Amino acid sequence: MPETLLTTLEYALLGLLARKVMSGYDVHRLFIQTPLAHFSSSPGSIYPALKRLARRGLVTDTLDRSTEARPRRVYSLTEAGSAALDAWLRQPVTREELVRNQQAMILRFSLVEGRLAPEEVIAYLEGYRREVVSYLAELGTARDRMAGSSLYERLALEHGIQAYEGQIRWIDRAISQIGERLGGE
Amino acid sequence: MPETLLTTLEYALLGLLARKVMSGYDVHRLFIQTPLAHFSSSPGSIYPALKRLARRGLVTDTLDRSTEARPRRVYSLTEAGSAALDAWLRQPVTREELVRNQQAMILRFSLVEGRLAPEEVIAYLEGYRREVVSYLAELGTARDRMAGSSLYERLALEHGIQAYEGQIRWIDRAISQIGERLGGE
DNA sequence: TATCCCATGTAACGAGTTACATGATTCT
DNA sequence: AGAATCATGTAACTCGTTACATGGGATA
Fold it and tell me: How far is CA A162 from CA A23, A157, B35, B68, in A?
């Protein structure tokens, strides 16, 4: 039913809260420190996003007074939040995402541990691969039509093409590594 | 003086209008047809952006009644617009852009024809390369610190690392091709 | 004592998205 | 005649950004 009702940031928060309970400030520090999924670490985005998730019933907030003098507002996933996260993780890569929202695409992959079976992850990557191949075909014909353009425009298009070709190589490696883990058990 | 006062879309519009006079609808069609710089083609973004540029004096609009029954509102660059475009084209790649706004980075490159000297373009690419190398070093240490993470998280980080490595290869090729053109004249 | 970091937020603003609106022209 | 396309826009909404505000605890 819900296709993509939440923003990428909100799904990222669900994914983080699925692992451990966190406060807004914990998220803030994580976004500053880790290069994974480079979101804005500004409180003006994080706190409102957590509030929206709470309003929708996907997370609950509790005031933790135990540890420190000042209470921390910590958030944890609800059942509904967990379900929404899983539904999102199972969404295949679309052309739209490939072109405009690669961040979401790879974020989703990075959050599947313990939530999707390895076979499902491989299926996700195979769908991703199909989209890249199909888009590369389109970029190839675009390149052929570009004979009259400037060197710089052609190089810019090459930049995109080579980036997607690199993604295919990554996908193939990833699939084989996940397969190894499957076989090795 | 103006660092980045305009949005990426607005700079893209300046770059297009630098080549030829266009109407909002022309831009719309271009964004639909070409894979270069995949912006939204919705009129709700294009028309307001053109109006903003006009309000700032970077473009002028004139009603073209000659060609068709319904007048088309066509936009052309002003001197100030041309200067703003050039200033933007000369801005080196920053870490921030590398991580969060690659679109702008490559868009800028694709628009330099006839506006920047090949030597300037090569300098731009060398700056771009330095930023990638420096960021890759950081990602490498992040990977080393990730020993405890899941296979998927590590693969997600590899995705980023390999993408940036691919960019270095593209930069080197681009520099040598531009150099060839320089030498061949 | 003053200043920095922890930790939480709010307010104003700007830009993009979606959806709607309009009317003319060309195609079927 | 009706549908699709050309061509221009507007309105409502949401989200993210920037900047500001607050106040406790630690450090100089």
Answer: 40, 9, 14, 42
Question: Measured between alpha carbons, how far is B73 from A172 in angstroms, rounded to an integer?
Answer: 49
Biggest CA pair distance of chain A = 69
Cβ proximity of A57 and A84 under 8 Å = no
Q: Region A143-155: what's the mean pLDDT? A: 89
Q: A1 falls in which pLDDT band (50, 70, 90)?
A: very low
Q: Is A75 left (phi over 0), alpha (psi -120 to 50) or beta?
A: beta
Measured distance CA(B175)–CA(B173) in Å, rounded: 5
Closest CA to B128 of B166, B94, B85, B86: B94
**CA A60 to CA A55: how far, in whole Å?**
9
Contacts of B157 in chain A (CB under 8 A): 35-36
Please give the residue of chain B at the shortest CA–CA distance from A115.
B152
Other beta carbons less than 10 A from residue A69's beta carbon? 5
Nearest Cα residue to A58 out of A5, A109, A115: A5
pTM of the model: 0.92
Please list every residue in chain A whose beta carbon sits closer than 8 Å to the beta carbon of residue B36: 153, 156-157
Nearest CA in chain B to A178: B151
Distance from CA of B57 to the nearest CA of A (A): 27
Nucleotide nearest to B61 (CA to C1'): D8
Summarize pLDDT for B122-166 with one digit per residue, the tens. Answer: 999 999 999 999 999 999 998 998 887 899 999 999 999 999 999
Distance, CA of A145 to CA of A139 (rounded, Å):
10
A 10 A CB-CB count for A159 gives: 20
- Judged by C1' against the alpha carbon of B43, the nearest nucleotide is D9
Asked whether B99 and B14 are in contact (CB, 8 A), the reply is no
| Separation in Å: C21 C1' and B62 CA | 23
Q: A60 — phi, psi (to 5°)?
A: -120, 145
Compute the distance between CA of residue A113 and CA of residue B86 in angstroms, rounded to an integer.
47
Can you give the distance from the CA of residue A120 to the C1' of nucleotide D18 in angstroms? 41
